[in-house]
Amino acid sequence: MEQVFTQNSFDKRFFSMSADCLYYKDGSNYRFIARFKYSAQKKRRPSFTKFLTKNFSTEEYFDAIDSGVAPYEILDRKGWGSYHQTASAAYAGTYHIADKSNFVGAKSV
Fold this sequence. Notes:
By secondary structure, the protein is α+β, with helices and mostly antiparallel strands. Helices cover 38% and strands 16% of the residues. It has five helices and three strands.
C-alpha cells in the first residue's frame, strides 16, 4: 500500500540524523525535530519517527516546537508513551501494547 503525501505530512525520506539530533528537510532548510542523547532514547528513535509521521502534520509539529514545547511532550499529548513511561508500566505489570490508556495524556479510544 503506497502512502499518500500531502503538502503538510511528514515524509520519511526527508529525515536525517546528525550526531544525536534528528532533523527534517523542509524545503531548503533543515528543521530540528528531537535530540536523542542517551542510548535508551536512541533505541526509541524509530518508534518516535513512526508515531510522528502517522499522527502529525509538519505545521502542527513545528508550531508546537516554535512555541517552546519539548519534542517528547508534543508526542505524549497524542498518546505516545516515552521510554520511562513504558518501562515503569512494564515493571508494574500494567503495560499492554494494545492499550496505552494508562499513560498520562493518552487519548481514550
